[in-house]
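so i finally got all the pieces together for this one. its two components total, 394 residues if u count the protein bits. some of the lines might not be protein, just check the labels. i wanna see the whole assembly predicted at once instead of chain by chain like last time, that was a mess tbh
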Amino acid sequence: MRAFGKEFLKGLIITNPVFVLVLGLCPLLAISTSVDNALGMSLAVFIVLLGSNAIIAAIRRFVPNVVRIPIFIVVIATMVTIVNLTFHANFPDLYESLGIYLPLVVVNCIVLGRAEAFASKNPIVHSIADALGMSVGFMLALLMISSIRQTLGTGSLSVFGFHFFTLPVLGKHPIAIFILPYGAFLVIALLMVIFRRTGVMKQ
Amino acid sequence: MNELIAIFLGLVLINNFLLVRFLGLCSFFGVSTKLSNAVSMGVAVTFVMALASVVTWIIRHYILIPFNIEYMNIIVYILVIASLVQIVELFIKRTNLALYNAFGIYLPLITVNCAVLGVTLINATEDYSFLGSVAAALGGGLGYTLIMAMMSGIREKLEMANTPKTMKGIPIAFIIAMLLGLAFVGFVGMI
């Protein structure tokens, strides 16, 4: 149980997949324009990572070393196909706004990276803890970036139709650059600098 | 013909894979530290993208659509890309050892480059014609190479510059990517 907790907490801060390992940037930057999309993407990554880590840890003794990467990719692609079809059937709006970034979870470095670096060497329970920690760490980073971008870029924050607040001046004149693709680079760079400056995360 | 040029230029200058669509960012920040590495990576990615577009177009139109199994596209595309990368690697190793050594570790890494899977998925969702998907692959690849080369040139100079300690490495690279992106906004509306 202690090992479970350790593997889980590791992903949150010390080896946060986004700010420390700098992995999985494509979906992170592309869909962090609104908190809705961020939550949808986190859910997708969570399901895929959990499933692939558990399956790969379970089959790790039977996989020949030479062809391990293709086998991992097929396992991951199967999980992504399941998630893709489920989202299409149950959350059509979310599916539309995630676009090609949902199938692209297949080549998300976090998923393959954890399969190769962790799940292929560790027992199932530890791999599940690792997957949980990594996906929660990914979700935290994604929520942080998307809430900043949505608040500054549109002047108000609302999640799944529930309205939180509208900023006084920015509500009428939002800073459009934060919602544009380039704003994503700016926000993540500034967050990284803040984390390094305050010593929360080491390089 | 006009449509092909529009697809090609649109992906090079306006909907750039790296700056606007955010495809292939992992390799972007990892490899763009030296100009020569960045260019080899760009050429390798462009080559695999073009091959993958051709093969996936054929598979999509002659196998997936006739048998009504389009939902299998993610698995099929990633397998095609993985095997293409293996074939290209073996072929280059046999025919041109110098080039093989120049590509080094980057060639196997292309399998998990979002840009390659991205272009095949874009071809499928936009339903481009055969030549259209080749134009999209070449445009996307050229745009990728262009930005990689620019970025690595800037980062080589940046090594010498006096950047604040907390900004060194990745954060300043992100800021530069933002400025490059802003500069490319100038091309919007050209087509």
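Residues 124-154 of chain A form the longest helix (31 residues).
The interface with chain B takes residues 22-27, 29-30, 69-70, 73-74, 77-78, 80-81, 84-85, 99-100, 103-104, 106-109, 112, 181-186, 188-190, 192-193, 196-197, 203 of chain A (CB under 8 Å).
anyway lmk what u think
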